Structure formats: structure tokens, C-alpha cells
């Protein structure tokens, strides 16, 4: 009927995703192969392995990460940035393939900026997480690996979402992502309280990442710490992981100290916990 | 000259008109009146119900439609065109929730409907939608909103507006009577809408359909009885006002 139908011309959809993104499913593989197996056999070795964590508390959201980028058996970069700001009130911790994370964060930043221009305000953290997971869901099965925790402060207060490239999107108070996450979870679950002061929260985050870097081969370097407050995100510190670990060893454990004080026992002289010596058994 | 520039809508006339769009606006003027009022805690939509044939089931004629829990719209013009627009708007409301978790703002869905209407004024082989819409609702921030769209794809925010047949008369009435007192509470806003419609509707409350949205509550359609009650109250107030006037003069 119309000329445009005859010429098969489509008006550009300015409301949808950018035409510059690669078309999902358009991965050139030999016939008979599915993209995932092909990549596993012949694909480039992509950088993985990290420790990142984020948790929500009364005064905002804390995001902390190590800075080691490993690729197989060697350290590609000992001082990489794994926490990426998206806008004034939103940060993302990145884990998985560094390249994928970098690209998708730029895409997310672009989409949120366009949204803010059209609607006059940024979407909530929940909305941003939904947008990211929807955009990545087109690429499921193509070996995209982005595991990220979006930390932000929106109209409903501090918010934390975990988004994974297979489509997982979870809301929670504590998340740790990466090969070092089991170690970090151990420390976090022990010391987390919603009513912490910011200083206690910083100490907890540093402690968790440091312990993870001590045990996990793929985590190390330094510990980055960010804090998202009502006024926006703030880069708190970057400390060397080994230095932090030895400092933590020197500190007495807070609850052991309380027990000793309540029973009026003098503090034992040496508390140096050497991994070669068997741990002191607690006398209760 | 107009006859040479109104066949295909993608053609501008020498003096800058899109005649098909203007003819669509004429079609809107033939539709039954709809009025929208934005109160402080309430938004009200009223429409003139055309009298139905004897054998027709009255309930199937619905001119006020919910687009989502917190947004609804009334239209004036071609009912079939309205059905298409309403369907697309309803889908968009849910798509928005799916993509961004949050319900649409009234402005967003108005902009969507307006963009949709504009698309149809700029593609060949299609004609514009012959409807104007009044879109009301509350946003997350609790502020009530009223928007009006027209066949050309423009939209504006209003405090109170009317579309359709005799829209001008109703709008003049609203301009005179929309005061801070008139919308002081929910009941007053409802009465203002009914009074505005009574200016142009024949045979009173039977031919009025009314719907309201209160903050954080879903759309409520008024039953015929409730409308009759309101109309009776209005008549009483009118009588009392007349009595006062006559007392003053005597």
C-alpha cells in the first residue's frame, strides 16, 4: 500500500535500545556449533575472579572491592577499579568479565541519562537494576558474564540490587560477588548490623575484603571503599590489602576482649595468629 | 484550495495547515462532552452519556476507562479510534512496570498517547486518530494531574478542561467557577464537575457518567443513584441561592 512498505523501510525507533549495540544472536560461528560451546573451546580467555561486596545500612550503602584483575594464572592488573559510578547516586560493583562489565556499565549510564532527560528524573535503583537485567537478557547463552551489585540512594532511601547476566535480579541487604565471596560472606555475616555507624561499616567492609584477599588467589592488590549517602557517592579510601591484613592481625578481637574484661582476667600477652601455629582454643 | 491539500495527510497546504488533522479535530467536536477537574486530593472525570436506543444494553457504552490502577482517561470523538488508543496505552502501562518496576507517571502515559497520535499524522496511508483525551491520575508523589491530548499529538496540563460538543460553553463555565473554594474538598470538586456538565446536558443526571480517583485509591465509577444524589444536592443549593437573592431584592 504505502511506499515505505514497498521499500521495506522502517522508521527508527528512538525510544528503544540503541541500534549500535550488537544484535543478539548474531554471533558468527561455524554451522552446526552453538555459540556457547564454540566460545568455551576456542574463545579468548576472559578475565574472571575477584572479591566485591556491598551492604546496606542506616547511613547508606557501602561498596568495597579488591583491585586484582587476573587472567588465568597471572595478574593482569593489580590496581584495577572494580567499583564503577553510574551517576551521582548510583554505583555498581563489577565481577565476572571485566570487559563485559565495563561495556554494560557505559550502556547503563547512557540509558539512565536518556531516561532522566525524557522523564525529568532518574529511575529508582530498582528500575535501573531492572533496565540492566532486561538489556542483558537478550544476550543469554552467549557467554556474557556480568555479576554486579547496584548500590544507590533513591526516593525510597538506600537500595541494593544484585544483577547477573543470566537474568537474576535480587534485592537484599548484603551481597558479595566473585571468587572470594565465600570468605567475605563469613566476615560480613558475623559483623553486620543495620545500625552500624559509618566508621564501623568501613571497618567491616575492609575486614571482609582483606580476609578474602588473604585466602583467594584471584583477589588481592588493594581494597577500594565507597560509600553512597543521601548526598551522593563518596570514595572513602584505597588501602593495600597486605598492609590491612597485618593491621587486622594486631587488633584484639572485640568479643574476646569483652569476655575477658567481664571475667576480670588479664589479657594474654601474645595474640599473634600465625597460620602455621594451631589456633588458640577458646576457654569458656 | 483546501480540497487539493486534504487528500493525503503528509502534505502541508501552502499556508501551513495539515487539513486532515484539523478535520479530525472537527470530528472530536461532534463527540459527546467530557469534563475533567483536578482537585486538591481528588481528580474527577465526567462525561455526557448519549441516550441509548431502547434495545441497547447501556452498560456496554463506556467512555471512561482505567489505564492502570492510578490513571484513567475519558475521550471525545470516534469510539473505535479510542478503543485502539486505550489498548495501546494499557499495554504501555504494563510494559513500563515490567521494564522499570515503577508505575507510569500520568505525564509519561500522556506523552506516550500524544506521541502515538503524532505518529499517525506523519505516516502515509494512515489517518489521524479522531479523539481528544482527558487523562487524570495521581503520581507516586501524591500530586493530582489532569492532561488533555488532541488529534495533532500535542498535550497540555490543565486545572480543569472540557472536550467534545459544547466544550467551549463548559470551559467558560469552569473558568468562572473554578476557584479555590470550589475545589476545597472532594465533594465540592465532584459537584463542580456535575454542574459543568448540567450546563450542556439535556434531562439532567440521567445522562451523566462520573468517575473519580482519590489519592492511593483505585478508580471509582459513580452509580446512577449516587449521581442523582449529587444532582439533587446541587438543585437544593441552587434553590437556596435563588431564595437568598430574592430575599435581598424584596
From TrEMBL, chain A:
Its main location: cytoplasm. PROSITE patterns: PROTEASOME_BETA_1, PROTEASOME_BETA_2. Residues 249-284 are annotated as: Disordered. The active site is at 50 (nucleophile). CDD domains: proteasome_beta_type_5 (cd03761). It catalyses: Cleavage of peptide bonds with very broad specificity. Belongs to the peptidase T1B family. Component of the proteasome complex. This is Proteasome subunit beta. It comes from Lynx canadensis (Canada lynx). The gene is PSMB11.
UniProtKB/TrEMBL annotation, chain B:
It comes from the Eukaryota. InterPro entries: Ntn_hydrolases_N, Proteasome_alpha, Proteasome_alpha-type, Proteasome_asu_N, Proteasome_sua/b. Gene3D superfamilies: Glutamine Phosphoribosylpyrophosphate, subunit 1, domain 1. It is found in: Cytoplasm; Nucleus. Keywords: Coiled coil, Cytoplasm, Nucleus, Proteasome. Its main location: cytoplasm. SUPFAM superfamilies: N-terminal nucleophile aminohydrolases (Ntn hydrolases). Residues 5-27 form the Proteasome alpha-type subunits domain. Residues 222-249 form a coiled coil. The keyword rRNA-binding does not apply. GO terms for cellular component: cytosol; nucleus; proteasome core complex, alpha-subunit complex; spermatoproteasome complex. Pfam families: Proteasome, Proteasome_A_N. GO terms for biological process: meiotic cell cycle; proteasomal protein catabolic process; regulation of meiosis I; ubiquitin-dependent protein catabolic process. The 26S proteasome consists of a 20S proteasome core and two 19S regulatory subunits. Belongs to the peptidase T1A family. This is Proteasome subunit alpha type. It comes from Panthera leo. The gene is PSMA8.
Amino acid at each position: 500500500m504505502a511506499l515505505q512498505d514497498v521499500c521495506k523501510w522502517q522508521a527508527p525507533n528512538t525510544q528503544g535500545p540503541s541500534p549500535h549495540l550488537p544484535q543478539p544472536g548474531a554471533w558468527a560461528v561455524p554451522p552446526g556449533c552453538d555459540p556457547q560451546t564454540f566460545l568455551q573451546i576456542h574463545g579468548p580467555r576472559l578475565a574472571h575472579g575477584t572479591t566485591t561486596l556491598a551492604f546496606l545500612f542506616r547511613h547508606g550503602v557501602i561498596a568495597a572491592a579488591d583491585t586484582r584483575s587476573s587472567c588465568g594464572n597471572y595478574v593482569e592488573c593489580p590496581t584495577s577499579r572494580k567499583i564503577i559510578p553510574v551517576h551521582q547516586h548510583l554505583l555498581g560493583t563489577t565481577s565476572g568479565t571485566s570487559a563485559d562489565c565495563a561495556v554494560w556499565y557505559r550502556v547503563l549510564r547512557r540509558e539512565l541519562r536518556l531516561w532522566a532527560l525524557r522523564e525529568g528524573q532518574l529511575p529508582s535503583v530498582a528500575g535501573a537494576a531492572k533496565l540492566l537485567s532486561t538489556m542483558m537478557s537478550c544476550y543469554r547463552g552467549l557467554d556474557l558474564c556480568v555479576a554486579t551489585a547496584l548500590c544507590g540512594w533513591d526516593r525510597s532511601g538506600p537500595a541494593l540490587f544484585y544483577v547477573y547476566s543470566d537474568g537474576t535480579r535480587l534485592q537484599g541487604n548484603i551481597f558479595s560477588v566473585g571468587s572470594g565471596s565465600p570468605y567475605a560472606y563469613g566476615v560480613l555475616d558475623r559483623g553486620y548490623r543495620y545500625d552500624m555507624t559509618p566508621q564501623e561499616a568501613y571497618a567491616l567492609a575492609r575486614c571482609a575484603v582483606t580476609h578474602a584477599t588473604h585466602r583467594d588467589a584471584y583477589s588481592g592488590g588493594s581494597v577500594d571503599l565507597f560509600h553512597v549517602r543521601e548526598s551522593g557517592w563518596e570514595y572513602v579510601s584505597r588501602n593495600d590489602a597486605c598492609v590491612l591484613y597485618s593491621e587486622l592481625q594486631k587488633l584484639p578481637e572485640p568479643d574476646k576482649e569483652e569476655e575477658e574484661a567481664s571475667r576480670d582476667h588479664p589479657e594474654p600477652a601474645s595474640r599473634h595468629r600465625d597460620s602455621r601455629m594451631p589456633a588458640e582454643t577458646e576457654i569458656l | 484550495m483546501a480540497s487539493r491539500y486534504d487528500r493525503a495527510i503528509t502534505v502541508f497546504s501552502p499556508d501551513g495547515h495539515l487539513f486532515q488533522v484539523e478535520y479530525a479535530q472537527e470530528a472530536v467536536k461532534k463527540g459527546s462532552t467530557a469534563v475533567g477537574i483536578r482537585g486538591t486530593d481528588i481528580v474527577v472525570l465526567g462525561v455526557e452519556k448519549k441516550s441509548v436506543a431502547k434495545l441497547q444494553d447501556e452498560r456496554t457504552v463506556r467512555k471512561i476507562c482505567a489505564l492502570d490502577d492510578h490513571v484513567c482517561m475519558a475521550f471525545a470523538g470516534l469510539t473505535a479510534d479510542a478503543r485502539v488508543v486505550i489498548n495501546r496505552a494499557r499495554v504501555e502501562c504494563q510494559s513500563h512496570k515490567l521494564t522499570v518496576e515503577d508505575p507510569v507517571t500520568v505525564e509519561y502515559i500522556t506523552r506516550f498517547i500524544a506521541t502515538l497520535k503524532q505518529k499517525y499524522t506523519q505516516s502515509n496511508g494512515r489517518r489521524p486518530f479522531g479523539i481528544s483525551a482527558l487523562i487524570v491520575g495521581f503520581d507516586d508523589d501524591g500530586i493530582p494531574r489532569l492532561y488533555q491530548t488532541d488529534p495533532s499529538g500535542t498535550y497540555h496540563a490543565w486545572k480543569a478542561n472540557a472536550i467534545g460538543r459544547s466544550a467551549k460553553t463548559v470551559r467558560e463555565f469552569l473558568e468562572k467557577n473554578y476557584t479555590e473554594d470550589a475545589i476545597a474538598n472532594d465533594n465540592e470538586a465532584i459537584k463542580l464537575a456535575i454542574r459543568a456538565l448540567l450546563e450542556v446536558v439535556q434531562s439532567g443526571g440521567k445522562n451523566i457518567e462520573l468517575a473519580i480517583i482519590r489519592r492511593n485509591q483505585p478508580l471509582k465509577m459513580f452509580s446512577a443513584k449516587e449521581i442523582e444524589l449529587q444532582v439533587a444536592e446541587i438543585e437544593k443549593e441552587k434553590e437556596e441561592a435563588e431564595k437568598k437573592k430574592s430575599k435581598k431584592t424584596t
